[in-house]
Specification:
single chain, alpha/beta, eight-stranded mixed β-sheet, 10 helices, 35% helix
């Protein structure tokens, strides 16, 4: 385990996988970053630097828990870059971590060489995902044996009469098998205060972030999973449209964790982008 000190003195941890030029990989959740693994073998091409956000995994709980807020976590990413001694870095982010990466790129554009957003959350840029969008996407899985129960749970959530997101878990995976079940469980956040405060009032300023990203000069990859209810291809394409130099890719047959659903395809796409 490697550690570094945040600006407020909180001790933060990170993992490394592989060799070669580094790429910093931000997890979603906020959850223990162990669920990213080595991103399906991406570590064969690049050295992955995978931090645990404060209060998750092996990173310390801060004295000031309001520092879990997404915009304030930007300072932790900058502290990690400085600790690594990188004038600029390639940055990859998954899911909710894309909100953090987008805000980091908006504040420190000269510190980002390339930006890869994998099945990204988009609250930081004000893109909303409607229940109808999720319903339409879910219906593509109508032949799956688990579909009736999972779709009923999704309908209840959409209509405001239910909140059993766990029952909808199969919709977030390209294949709902034992490996997917284990991975889904491993990626579940444990620190619910960190999750709640991450998106607390003031965490996002979409208008300011969008304006900054419109001037962001570095290349960007936005990768969506064909079946991903969390970050549907439609919203990810809209996100891609905010950047001057963005590539938008939909991975066929994938859900929210494309390196689990088809590691070879994911690694080929991502490694080619990162160089």
């Amino acid at each position: 385990m490697h550690t570094f000190s945040a600006a407020d003195g909180t001790r933060l941890a990170y993992r490394t996988h592989g060799d070669g030029d580094p790429v910093v990989c931000l997890p979603g959740g906020p959850a223990d970053s162990a669920y990213l693994g080595d991103l399906g073998g991406l570590s064969a091409h690049r050295r992955l630097i995978v931090p645990d956000l404060r209060g998750t995994g092996r990173s310390a709980v801060p004295e000031d828990t309001s520092s879990y807020r997404c915009d304030r976590l930007v300072d932790d990413v900058e502290a990690l870059r400085a600790h690594l001694g990188l004038p600029a870095m390639d940055l990859l982010a998954h899911s909710a971590g894309a909100n953090l990466a987008a805000q980091y790129a908006a504040r420190f554009p000269h510190r980002v060489s390339r930006l890869a957003l994998i099945t990204p959350g988009a609250r930081a840029v004000g893109i909303e995902i409607t229940g109808e969008t999720r319903r339409e996407l879910a219906q593509l899985r109508g032949n799956e044996p688990w579909f009736p129960a999972a779709f009923a749970a999704l309908e209840a959530i959409t209509e405001g009469t239910g909140s059993d997101w766990d029952a909808t878990a199969p919709f977030f995976c390209g294949r709902w098998d034992d490996r997917a079940r284990q991975h889904q469980a491993a990626g579940r956040p444990r620190n619910m205060e960190a999750v709640t405060v991450f998106a607390a009032e003031g965490a996002f300023d979409p208008e300011t972030t969008r304006a900054a990203l419109a001037a962001f000069a570095a290349p960007v990859l936005l990768l969506a999973g064909e079946f991903d209810l969390n970050s549907p291809p439609r919203s990810t394409a809209e996100f891609a449209g905010l950047f001057p130099d963005a590539s938008f890719v939909v991975q066929p047959g994938a859900g929210h964790y494309p390196w689990v659903d088809d590691a070879d395809r994911f690694v080929a796409t991502t490694a080619a982008f990162l160089g």
